[in-house]
Amino acid sequence: MLPSKAQSIIKMGLFDEASRVEDPTHEFNERLLAEEEGALWDDGKSSAPTYNSFVVCLFRASALVLVFLAGALFGFQWHGDLDSLCSRHVSQYSTVIKEVEIRYDLQEFNGSLLKENVFRQDAGPDVDAAWESRSELYRSVRIPPEDAEQSGLAADQVKINAKYGGGFPANVEGLHHLHCLNLLRQSLYYNYEYYHAKREGPFTNNEYIFRRHVSHCLDIIRQELMCTVDSGVLGQVWIYPENPEPYVDFNTQHRCKNFDAVRRWAEKNQLPQDPPADFLQPPSEGDRIYSQMP
């Protein structure tokens, strides 16, 4: 038999050991206490991750603010020149884009069916003068060499002789479209005889070439209208108060380029009407020369 005092000591030890097993929070409490005591004696290095995270967050927030302010400033600066920006985005680049201040204005189309204007008159001097004032008489313009590639001109295309300034002869496409539309007007069944009798321009060609010229113009306009398809809509109005009927309203509003500015540029930059015989540079070795009209 152990002395009662020894038994008491053993019992106390067994009790302590059992209590440690039965109390799962004991180990956690000891670890927590150790961490708290360690924090009192920390040299400051353990707070670095928290501090660094704060700095990173602050830096990112500042960067976002700067990007937002820069974007807002850029947008404000471009707000006054959105017309030029949009034109450069949706139009083929050329010297016209570079030198003409393109603007878009709200215009209402004259879509009247029965009320004719000067452009719709039957063949005669007045209607011819109206159409010619738009584009018909303008000659080619000069595209500088530095604008050629970006304007879609190949290096081996026709060039102007260097002694006359160099560059590439070219025509403004929009004015060619109007030329084509004018030819279609002249070819209408009720205008054809008048212009055929005058024997001017396309009407000097034989019937085969003339018909191909007209169909060329028709198809060019078709492609242009499909390329720049108008996404506006035509509403309807009521006509005839006594017996109302719906009728399509063709007098719609459109955002239009300042056509006259382009026309004036083309007129001002026309090549000579009667250029010298050597005005164009002869083709160089290796330049493409087509065996027939492309």
From TrEMBL:
Keywords from the UniProt entry: Membrane, Transmembrane, Transmembrane helix
Membrane-spanning residues: 54-78
Protein origin, superkingdom: Eukaryota
GO biological process, any: mycotoxin biosynthetic process
Protein's UniProt keywords contain NAD: no
Span list, region Disordered: 270-294
InterPro entries found in the cross-reference section: UstYa-like
Pfam families: UstYa
Keyword presence, Transcription regulation: no
Family: Belongs to the ustYa family.
Name of the featured protein: Tat pathway signal sequence
